[in-house]
Amino acid sequence: MRAALLASLASLASLASVASLASLGACSKDKPAGPREAVLEAWKADKLAPAAPLAPAQVAFAKDCQGGAIVDIDLLLCNFATPAEAKAAEDQGLGWIGAATGASQAHGAALIVLADRKKADPNGRMINRLMKLAPK
Amino acid sequence: MPRSILVLLALVALVLLSVPVPAAAGGGKQVRYVGIHPMPRSEGGGICYIEGPHVHIYDADRIQYRDHRGANYFVGDPVAYGYDGPRYAYKGHHPIHVNVVVGDEDPDDEYCYLSGPHFHYFAPPDGPEFKLAGGAYFYVGEPPRAYVEARPAMMRINAVYQPLVYERPQVTIEAPVGWIGARAEFAAPAVVVAPPSAVIVPPSAGISIEAHVPMPSLHVDVGIGAPAVIVHEAPGVIIEERVRVKHDHGRHRGHYK
Questions:
Q1: Rounded to 5 degrees, what are φ and ψ at B159?
Q2: Best mutation site among B47, B50, B224 for testing chain A: the one with the most A CBs within 10 Å?
Q3: Is 0.95 topped by the overall pTM?
Q4: Shortest CB distance from B28 goes to which of A99, A125, A131?
Q5: Least confident of A36-45, B5-14, B59-68, B201-210
């Protein structure tokens, strides 16, 4: 009798863990996979997206970066382990901009670097919009 | 070449040299900025609307900008350069809490030395140091020594804005009690302004600036973002500040009043 009771309790517990795993799965589906994806999602929600999928980019100051262009502005998006690390890389991001108008800002654990090398955004409104849309 | 043309050319050169206009930074060197600011005509003029930290490859002048964590922060009136966003009217000198405006955690109080009605793109923080009257903010706080010490040099900003023609805020209400512009202890020492023979007479307590132009007159038009200067020969300009509440029933446009 006691053994049967224990067995039913164990099966209930395993059912509960399966249910909670399923719910975790549902949550992770809604949430962007990383800081970079969170930035891209925020832009997408405002109908802004890179012209082509971002490609892996090699820079000295970060290990996980992707580059491309968004509304004719050159873009570098890097993932860091912590917001502090992303913040610390802001100055090095300026080096990637070079001789152009641009901005390098940490947003959470993502570093967003925008460089208007083609002078596509003469009054900076698009750079401002992209930076303001990105999650903090 | 007639002497009058030589004099005219000399005056043009003088004014061009005296107007603080952002210049191209040498060799494509990055210059840091934070907040919106005017752009030089060589870059198309107008306003750069990037609110956060950013870089350009042109320099900033020392009269309309202050240093904030190594970046140039514009303390002038952006409307004079074509800014078309939200704006807040101020009258007279006041502090700018730069860290609040740009949203970082590095406390930095700078001062705006524009003497007349003008705009900024931010409102002051709530608190007792500003009073809102007639749609304009008046500084009624106690300015620190830093404000007083920098004032003689920084008052030159008024010579930059005085000739700019743009729609300034209409502030016709009596200034609130305690307004810095009506306090005798903050009357400025006389300042000699760089353009030909211009002298700023200290305000007795006040608001408006008037340019008394003897004939033949000096007429200087400074273009937005960069000088586009027309100079007529002149013996001199006396710019005088005085307390006066203007009642022009909203018709006024243009120069400081």
A1: -70, -25
A2: B50
A3: no
A4: A99
A5: B201-210
